[in-house]
Structures are given as C-alpha cells and as structure tokens.
Amino acid sequence: MKTLTNFSYHHVLVLGLAKSGTAAAQLLLDSGVNVRINDLKADKETPEVRELMKQGAEVITGGHPLSVLDQVDYLVKNPGIPYDNPIIAEAEKRNIPVVTEVELAGLLHEGPLVAVTGSNGKTTTTTLIHEMIKSDHQKVSLAGNIGHVSCEVARNTGEDETMVTELSSFQLLGTEKFRPDISVWLNLYEAHLDYHHSLENYHQAKAQITANQTPADTLVYNADDENIVKFLPDVKAKLVPFSIHKKGEGAWSDETSIYFENERIMDKQDILLVGEQNLQNILAAVATVKVNGIRNEAIQDVLKTFAGVEHRLQFVTKKNDRLFYNDSKATNILATSYALKSFENPVILLAGGLDRGTEFDSLIPHLNGVKSLVVFGETADLLIETANKAGIQDVVKVETMNEAVQEAYKRSEEEDVILLSPACASWDQYRTFEERGHMFIQAVHKL
C-alpha cells in the first residue's frame, strides 16, 4: 500500500476517529509521521484504537484540552466537526493547517481523479460514473462520502486507475491543494446552514471542488442552476455543461433522446431510472465519462440496467403490472416532491415518520397524481389533513410497513406506481432510513 511521500509535516493531530479518522491515522503512521488522536468518546480498549496505540499513536479521550495542539503542525479533522469547535478555532489562530482526509487522498492518488459534489444526487451520479467506466473495462475505484474513505482507497490505486469520489461540503471545506482532473458540480440549494452559518459560506465550500483546477482540468456543471453559473467567471478549468433545458452543448436531452455535443447517445425510453432529478444526474455522468473517453456502448449498458442507488428512488420490482419504488431517503418535503414529479402514472404514496413540527402544505401542489395515500408514524394525522386539503379521497392510516404495503397494493391497479417517499425522518419507528427502506422491500417481496 502507498504512503505519503514528500509530506512536510511531522506532528499531526487527528481530531475525531470514526472511519475517516482511523484511516487517516493509519496512513500517517505508515508514512512515518508522529500522530496524536483526540476523540471525546473513543474507547482505548477497542481493537482499532489499541492497534493505533501499538503503532505509536498517542490517544487522548474524554475531552478536548487545548494542549492536544502542543507541538502539532497539521490537523486532520472528522468532516462532521464544525469550524467553531474550540480546538479547530485555536489551530487556525496558531496557523496550523486544518484539513479533512480527502486532502490526504489527493496527495496520494496518482491516476485520474473525478470528484462529484452537489446538494442532491451525489451518490447516484458518482455510482453511475463508476459503473460506466467499469463497463468500459477500465480500472476504476469508488470513494468518498459514498462509504469508502478516500485516503484508504487511494492507497491501493495505480497510475492507470480512475478514482471517482463523492464529496460533501464538509469534506471540501477541509481541502487546500485538492485538485480533481474532472470535477462535477450537480446543483446548489440551501443546506447545512447549521454547520456553515450562512448560505454564502455553504456555496463557497462547494466551490472548493474546482478552486485548484487549471486549464488542463475539466468542470462538468449544471447549466440550469443559476447558483452554480455565477461562480463560472472565476473557474480556470475547461467548462463542460449539462442541461435538461438548453440544447446542443455538453450533455443534453430532448423529448426522445440524450446527447453529448452533437452525438446522440441513446433513447430516453431505454433508460431504467426515472424522474427529472435522475435525468440531470444521468446527463452529468454522461458528460463526465465522455470527457474521459468512455464508449457509448458502455454508457448504454449501464443506463439500460441501473435501477438506482438503494433507498433513493430505487426501482424495487414489478408485480402484476404494479411498479414499486423505494425512496426512503426522502426525509423532507423537497425530496418527496422531486419523487412525485418523476411519474406520469397514478401514484399510491406511502408517507409519514418523525414529527419535527413541519407543515406539509408545500407538498399539496405535488399531490395531483396521487390517487391514494397510506400514512404512518408520528406525522400520520398531519398528512391526513394535508390529503384532505389536496382533495385526495382515499387515505388510510396504518401502524406498520407490512400493513402499508398491503393497503397500497389493495388500492392499486395495473400500471400504478406504489411509492415509499415518506417526507419525514425515520427515527420515530426505525433506527435509520435504510432500515425503513429494507422493511418496505421485504414487505413488497412478501406480497
């Protein structure tokens, strides 16, 4: 496995362990760097921590004393730790560089690097790019916020291997020299203001994905997103747009097909993924891999068979001409509204979950195609009120996911879509949205 070479720092503090901190600490130790780890809740008796200590890491738990910065000349932080944390604030006062492990990955990886960010659609787009490159029989690895720690993946990649990495604003904010060969900027909405404190800060964090690019690099960007377009005058990379509204440049679509520049790629009716949001993700992926020289046949093979990332408008199955979709990741009204816009067929919507005091009136304009509503969880009664306002006549309240699926199926006809898109977090009944989605899939297969 590769280690850091020409790394000019000697005493590094890793703030926060979890997967990314553990991987960063191991890489630094293997690279001959002195490592100090500070984690409030880490247990020194776990095998992972004991192994790091055995290799020479100093581990401080139970608090965050400012003394952990003594002799430190570099700080690698967990992406979730905000910058107003006292340790990070003090490190910046002392002019100690503060990065996330993504910065280390950029120093390690020697082959082509593709980085994907956006407020929505990152995982789907990153996965599509990875699968298209793989389908063309080229070496490729998947990394980043998608579940594989970037600096760990980069240790095993060669010069001829493309690394495709999904990056959040939290990760990007902790980069200094990180420079993708191709960066992909999907969209830019309001998000994570509790972390970034302002919309401008959030936007600037996202813009970091292209900050170090040169004219030899490429930015694939959403030409339909005004928030992204306003950053373009400062971008040095070659610009490649994608758009569902503007035709003829980059990746685009008309009523029947998708294209890259003046080249037709395939019929839209042959694409398994549905919805406007997914069409944007598809065009972003197509633009990226065409820049990378991937054949149309490889793109077509993926788009004809890719059913979606799990729990994100994921096609589950077709039973007796009913189509089942799992969108358990839709934990807010905006996500559910996107899901509902994806279907022309009548929809039976399964919704409900944790009550965060949200009003659902903003969902009403998107309920036109909903013929039946099956509700559950703490917000069930609120959603019933919303259905009444929207004029939905058929509404049923249930207790369990099995009941929800059975009731939805009873109310369905051929060509109907049965969609789990809860518009709420899952924590009233489930540990995670993934658990909720798995329960839905199991209930569908029991029918």
From TrEMBL:
Its main location: cytoplasm. This is UDP-N-acetylmuramoylalanine--D-glutamate ligase. It comes from the Bacteria. Residues 116-288 form the Mur ligase central domain. Its EC number is 6.3.2.9. Cell wall formation. Catalyzes the addition of glutamate to the nucleotide precursor UDP-N-acetylmuramoyl-L-alanine (UMA). It is an enzyme of class 6 (ligase). The keyword DNA-binding does not apply. GO terms for cellular component: cytoplasm. It is found in: Cytoplasm. It holds the Pfam family Mur_ligase_C. Keywords: ATP-binding, Cell cycle, Cell division, Cell shape, Cell wall biogenesis/degradation, Cytoplasm, Ligase, Nucleotide-binding, Peptidoglycan synthesis. GO terms for biological process: cell division; cell wall organization; peptidoglycan biosynthetic process; regulation of cell shape. Belongs to the MurCDEF family. Pathway: Cell wall biogenesis; peptidoglycan biosynthesis. Residues 311-424 form the Mur ligase C-terminal domain. ATP binds at G118, S119, N120, G121, K122, T123, T124. HAMAP family: MurD.
